[in-house]
Amino acid sequence: MVVPWPAGGSTDVVMRAISEAAAKHLGQTIVVDNKPGASGTLGPAVVAANAQPDGYTLAQMPITVMRLPLMQKTAWDALKDFTYIVHLTGYTFGITTKADGQFKTWQEVVEYAKANPGKVTYATPGAGTSLHIGMEQIAAHSGIKLTHVPFKGGAETNAAVLGGHTTLQADSTGWKPLVDAGQLRLLAIWTAERSKNWPQAPTLKELGYPFVFDSPFGIAGPKGMDPAVVKTLHDAFKKAIEEPSVINMMAKYDMVPRYLDTAAYRKAVEEFIVSEKAALERIGLARKE
User: Fold this and answer.
1) How many alpha carbons fall within 13 Å on the CB side of residue 212?
2) Where do the structural domains in the chain lie, given as residue ranges?
3) Could you give the count of Cα atoms lying within 13 Å of 9 in the half-sphere of its Cβ?
4) Residue 104 backbone phi and psi in degrees, to 5
5) CA-to-CA distance for 134 and 138, rounded, in angstroms?
6) How do the pLDDT tens digits run along the chain, 289 residues long?
7) Would you tell me the crossing angle of helices 106-115 and 130-142 to the nearest 10 degrees?
8) Whole-number Å distance between alpha carbons of 153 and 82
């Protein structure tokens, strides 16, 4: 199982729990292989290019795999080069800053950024990620200019904001231990409702933005997989996200099971590509043909 993010981040921890549970249903060990880089697309790109379609090499599929070809030339086609197996869950995203830093609210960030264009920096797990695109949409809506600083994953974005190398961090819940320990302040959460884990953090909608970003993900293999193998894998991973131990691990990171079967997952990918192309064109990040 190729996880295209560094070890120890929220995706890695949750994918290890899901893989361990699925392995029991398959009667085989699943080895997690971390291949971070290229905004979460390096791992899936390697799978598309090199893996045999025998069901023994799979990848967690971040939304960036579908988005990046809309922004730049890539070696893969999101619809033609993968066999989508099962949709699993989605992230809770949030914006954090140092707890002892100058900003106590998101509104203070906006006011400072209006007076100091480009001075506010934010760390994300990479260019073209939902966090990068989301922050640019938020900035455009606020009429401010922020400076993006891309990293490879949550461990690096945590270090960047904690060390004062960036003003802000936009990431999934790998920041949880630091927020809970009072080292980082959660300024905003990107889900539709406030989180039970951090009820004090306002949603983007409460802050006046018409956005909800949660970047759902599933697993896929290379193109040309046997439908019978796909069904076996689908069934094992579906059972995995129904297990109480997995649900509890996901809940720790504010994630919930969001199951889609093989056909529905493929359809969701097709629909996402259409809607995302329009969103990227609106903020000027779409690929110029």
Assistant:
1) 6
2) 2-90+216-282, 93-189
3) 25
4) -105, -25
5) 6
6) 999 999 988 899 999 999 999 999 999 999 999 999 999 999 999 999 999 999 999 999 999 999 999 999 999 999 999 999 999 999 999 999 999 999 999 999 999 999 999 999 999 999 999 999 999 999 999 999 999 999 999 899 999 999 999 999 999 999 999 999 999 999 999 998 999 999 999 999 999 999 999 889 999 999 999 999 999 999 999 999 999 999 999 999 999 899 999 999 999 999 999 999 998 998 899 998 7
7) 70
8) 23
Does CATH number 3.40.190.10 belong to domain 93-189? yes
The two domains 2-90+216-282 and 93-189 share their CATH topology (first three levels equal):
yes
The hierarchical CATH code for the domain 2-90+216-282 is 3.40.190.150
Token digits of residue 158? 């945590």
Q: What is the pTM of this model?
A: 0.87
Q: In the Cβ-directed half-sphere of 198, how many Cα atoms lie within 13 Å?
A: 28
Residue 80: what are its φ and ψ, rounded to 5°?
A: -95, -25
Q: Helix 262-282 and helix 130-142: axis angle, to 10°?
A: 40
Distance between CA 280 and CA 18 in Å, rounded? Answer: 32
Query: What is the C-alpha separation between 191 and 195, in angstroms, rounded?
Result: 8
Q: Which of 233, 262, 260 is nearest to 55 (CA)?
A: 233
- Residues 129/39, Cβ–Cβ less than 8 Å: yes
DSSP 3-state of 262: helix
Lookup result for tokens 């790109």:
45
